[in-house]
Amino acid sequence: MTNLFNIFDPSTSLYFSMNWISALMILSLCPILYWKLPNRMTKTFTMLFNYIFSEFKPLMNKLPNSLSLILAFFTFIMLNNIMGLMPYVFTATSHMSTTMMMALSLWIGMMLHGWIFNTSNLLIHLAPKGTPALLMPFMVLIETISNIIRPLTLSIRLAANMIAGHLLITLLTSVTPFTPMSILPILLSAQFSLNILELAVAFIQAYVFSVLITLYASESIS
């Protein structure tokens, strides 16, 4: 069991957390933006960002400058999730220290902006329209707790999904040397399908994180 969770250990044999450097591997993709003729990777990213921009723009009409920040977080999470599927590459987004840092910093910024510049709107959200007077204190308490735990749920959702997928891949890979030849094609098919699923999860979790942050931001500035 200890060896199973060693893939999430950021420390190296030199007792220095150099595995965190893998989070900066996305910088190696920056030179493709300066090519004279766009390659297929550039075209793929352009199509993806145009789609994400069109999805998020209606939610951020009152604060369009924040779209660049949301796209930056989406890109960072997506590329780290994808690169974490490669052999011997550490997945930074599988650690709460990374996901909590992103979620907490964004949540604090949105709360400060909302309570300073849009106090009445945030107070209205604590008690939805049509709430009976008897249930008003309970609704305020529930809404307050739900607002406070938002960074926690964001970070746990992202980290847990990354950890679960990597554990399944590790478990299937570890039994490969002991698998009979008659069952090996089935196991390889399962591994291939799981890797395709995890590739989709890498995109989906980045999208979900960005969408929720966008919804929370639109709530604090609407």
From TrEMBL:
Pfam families: ATP-synt_A. Keywords: ATP synthesis, CF(0), Hydrogen ion transport, Ion transport, Membrane, Mitochondrion, Transmembrane, Transmembrane helix, Transport. One of its GO terms (molecular function) is proton-transporting ATP synthase activity, rotational mechanism. SUPFAM superfamilies: F1F0 ATP synthase subunit A. It is a multi-pass membrane protein. The chain crosses the membrane at residues 20-37, 67-90, 96-118, 130-149, 155-175, 196-217. CDD domains: ATP-synt_Fo_a_6 (cd00310). It is found in: Membrane; Mitochondrion inner membrane. One of its GO terms (cellular component) is mitochondrial inner membrane. It comes from the Eukaryota. Belongs to the ATPase A chain family. This is ATP synthase subunit a. It comes from Grandidierella rubroantennata. The lineage of its organism: Eukaryota, Metazoa, Ecdysozoa, Arthropoda, Crustacea.
